[in-house]
Amino acid sequence: MPNALLTGVGRRRGIAAGIAAGLDEDGWDLALSYWHPYDQRVGHGGEPDDPERLAEELRGQKRRIVLVPGDLEDPAVPAEVVNSAADQLGGLDALVMSHAESVDSGILDTTVDSFDRHYAVNVRATWLLIAAFARQLPATGGSVVALTSDHTVGNLPYGVTKGGLDRLVLVSAHELADAGVRANVINPGPIDTGWMTDEIRANAIAQQPTGRLGTPKDTANLVRFLLSKQGEWINGQLLYSNGGYPKGRLPV
């Protein structure tokens, strides 16, 4: 069975949990990475035992599911997470990155500490995860997928560092081509995983041509395709999987 490491799997309602369920259905064995202090700090309705409960649900499909918690703000941790996941599963064939530091602030009220934390988690950790993943790849290569966002106004450090993440992931499709790495970025548009107010939800639906919000399963379906044999020709792309939501628009 193929093996994948997923980051940002801290809440059962989150996008990463939806991706995990989809890959589990496709026969992937999974390492789920998360960091409780972050999920507790930002809220959005998660429970401390969400990763454990998700893992038990996925194991019901007879898959190997391991938990690899880690604070990606620490520069030593990304490689530790990759190596632990690879050791427990017997190597990794895919890296799916849904982790993020996301705390709302703008140009005038963002602190240096907050900006540095966003950079450490969203950019530096992404680089270190990809590098560690590439170093352990089998000769057959593997696939990298990361999630990004257009959100910048009022969420400056998140949006700016997601832009850095985009460049990192896309360049890896070229720099790591000799290692057989395929790499893509997905922008899923606004998906309500617990962070939307009623007003934001209504505004987002009003701008959505499909008349509904995206779901974690919508994003998971594209990830599943990118990691499949049928999706192997898609490489080095920033893909919008948002139901036609206007690029760059914010649901506020």
Structural notes for this entry:
The protein has eight helices and seven strands, in the order βαβααβαβαβαβααβ. It has 252 residues and is an alpha/beta fold. It has a seven-stranded parallel beta sheet with strand order 3-2-1-4-5-6-7, with helices on both faces. Helix 1 crosses helix 8 and helix 4 (77-89) runs parallel beside helix 5 (112-135).
- In round numbers, the mean pLDDT is 92
Distance between the termini: 43 Å
In terms of structural class, how would the helical and strand content be classed? alpha/beta
What Rg do the Cα atoms give?
17 Å
> Any low-confidence stretches, pLDDT <50, length ≥5?
none
Arrangement of strands in the largest sheet: 3-2-1-4-5-6-7
Helix content: 40-55%
Global morphology:
globular
Strand percentage lies at: 5-15%
The main β sheet shows up as: 7 strands, parallel
Q: Work out the helix count.
A: 8
- The number of distinct β-strands equals 7
Order of helices and strands: EHEHHEHEHEHEHHE
List keywords for this structure.
252 residues, alpha/beta, seven-stranded parallel sheet, 42% helix, globular
In short:
Helices cover 42% and strands 13% of the residues. The longest helix has 24 residues, at 112-135.
